[in-house]
Amino acid sequence: MRAPHPHAANDPRAPAIEVRDLRKNYGDLEVLKGISVTARDGEVIAIIGGSGSGKSTFLRCINLLEQPNSGQILISGEEIKLKTSHRGLEPADRKQVERIRTNLAMVFQGFNLWQHMDILHNVIEVPVHVLGQPRDQAIATAEDMLRRVGLYEKRHAYPSFLSGGQQQRAAIARALAVEPSAMLFDEPTSALDPELVGEVLKVIKDIAGEGRTMMLVTHEMAFAREVADRVIFLHQGRIEEEGASDQIFSAPRSERLQKFLHSIR
């Protein structure tokens, strides 16, 4: 378990991610019912909950991969400009969103690697073609990131020749290559065979230990308890309980959280 941080109300660190009263519905189905969360610089927040609780939708709304219906999203104090459309709120300034996304990298369940590129070119694609980095600089950074995740020797391999765990580590290297200030992980081990989970969790744990802000949706409870400063339990689109990781897992107050933790043991 990570060392405890100051209580949120007294935490002097600047907010890295702020979400205020976020709501999302699909037709008549309300998936997020007014969620407010603040992740401060260097804080690791684990988001847990049952299937259909809104965990992944919440992360995807932060990165505007899903359009919320109302609410505010601020990254490093900068509010994302949103406008109303028939589908909900959509970006009012696409360039702002593109810029913010380079500081808010996301790692998905399904790796999302480009199959026609080797791993090295997967990692340098955004730095070179989106951020405009010199190719030599991007390659040097990519090779460093691949060393960090244990894939330097596989840099010229194509995704189809890698295991699921290796592909997910490559996806993490790709996310790190843009040097984000914060990272979002959406159940990064859920698509992996059980024997491959540990290698990915180790990489994420090492990143968390560097003091990088992270929001992590996970079903790995022991891992959440070990790496997270704070844990948020979602139930039917609302925050049912949140607190320090040790408190959440050792002394849950909510009856729903108690039942959830009991059901997965």
- What is the straight-line distance between the termini? 19 Å
Q: What oligomeric state do the depicted chains represent?
A: single chain
Task: Show unreliable segments.
Answer: none
CATH fold description of the largest domain = Rossmann fold
Strand content: 25-35%
CATH C-level of the largest domain: Alpha Beta
Largest sheet: 6 strands, mixed
What characteristic shape results from the CA principal axes?
globular
Count of all domains: 2
What structural class should be given to the helix and strand makeup? alpha/beta
Count of strand segments? 12
Task: Bin the helical content.
Answer: 25-40%
Strand order, sheet with most strands: 8-9-10-3-11-12
CATH architecture name of the largest domain: 3-Layer(aba) Sandwich
User: CATH homologous superfamily of the largest domain, by name?
Assistant: P-loop containing nucleotide triphosphate hydrolases
Q: Please tell me how large the radius of gyration is.
A: 18 Å
Please count the helical segments: 9
Overall mean pLDDT stands at 92
SSE ordering: EEEHEEEEHEHHHEHEHEEHH
Description of the molecule:
- This protein has 265 residues and is an alpha/beta fold.
- It has two domains: 146 residues, Rossmann fold (3-Layer(aba) Sandwich), CATH 3.40.50.300; 75 residues, no CATH class.
- The chain contains nine helices and twelve strands.
- β11 and β12 form a beta hairpin.
- The longest helix has 16 residues.
- The two termini are 19 Å apart.
- 40% of the residues are buried.
Could you give a short description of this structure?
Helices cover 35% and strands 28% of the residues. It is of the alpha/beta class and 265 residues long.
